[in-house]
């Protein structure tokens, strides 16, 4: 926020005598747009030029963002089916074969799904994930269950913090726990590659599918936006 203020991208509504920056509804709406455009890989200069364009229409901009996200829903739905199948196998403590990883799809669909994942995340990431899941021992699967329980605890903590700014130290420490937990779940903890792109994709998934951020069976769109924004801030400030 300090940087956005310094470059004229997002000015606070009020500056107190103690030099605190206070932001109102208009500023928060503008921040939402900034985060959306950053997700679309706009540079900060491009975002400034876009938001300051005389004919900029906030409602139209939101419609454009909605279309962009909606276009990805079909692909995400397919990937969710695969994730659910994999989780089911892990819970039943079964060894997973290549066919089981893509069970439920034709060979053509399976190849397309895998190719899309490789195109989006890279072949190394896909192969690492596949090999990790297939080679899990009974003890490792139990450890995986512990990691999932830890993730649930992290989500509860982040939900309690969702009224705070995503940039606060308290929130960012919990996001750091989330990132570490996710890397262990992916089987990539300790690797040099920070998987910034993949973590960014997970943040988008939280926004796109309400099931991932439900609390007590209820959709929490505010929490989804908070969590995605906190992850973006963490990536930009902590990951190479």
The rounded distance between the terminal residues' Cα atoms is 20 Å
The CATH architecture name of the largest domain reads Orthogonal Bundle
- SS summary, helix count: 12
SSE arrangement, N to C: HEEHHHHHHHHHHH
Number of strands: 2
**Percent helix range:** 55-70%
Assign the CATH topology of the largest domain.
Globin-like
pLDDT < 50 stretches: none
The whole-number mean of residue pLDDT values reads 77
Main pleated sheet: 2 strands, antiparallel
Strand content: under 5%
Query: What is the 3D form?
Result: globular
- The class by helix and strand makeup works out as mainly alpha
CATH class category name of the largest domain: Mainly Alpha
What is the radius of gyration computed over CA atoms, rounded to a whole number of angstroms?
Answer: 20 Å
Strand order of the largest sheet: 1-2
Instruction: Count the domains.
Output: 3
Annotate the secondary structure layout.
Elements: H1 2-6, E1 14-15, E2 21-22, H2 25-39, H3 44-51, H4 58-70, H5 73-91, H6 98-101, H7 107-121, H8 123-134, H9 138-160, H10 169-186, H11 196-208, H12 221-238
Helix pairs in contact: 7-8, 9-10, 10-12, 11-12
Task: Give me a quick take on this structure.
The chain has 240 residues and is mainly alpha-helical. It has three domains: 2-70, Multidrug-efflux Transporter Regulator, Chain: A, Domain 2 (Orthogonal Bundle), CATH 1.10.1660; 72-136, no CATH class; 138-240, Globin-like, CATH 1.10.490. The chain contains twelve helices and two strands.
Task: Characterize the structure shown.
The chain contains twelve helices and two strands. It has three domains: 69 residues, Multidrug-efflux Transporter Regulator, Chain: A, Domain 2, CATH 1.10.1660; 65 residues, no CATH class; 103 residues, Orthogonal Bundle (Globin-like). It has 240 residues and is an all-alpha fold. The mean pLDDT is 77. It starts with a helix and ends with a helix. It has a two-stranded antiparallel sheet. A hairpin with a 5-residue loop joins strand 1 and strand 2. Helix 9 packs antiparallel against helix 10, helix 10 crosses helix 12 and helix 11 packs antiparallel against helix 12.
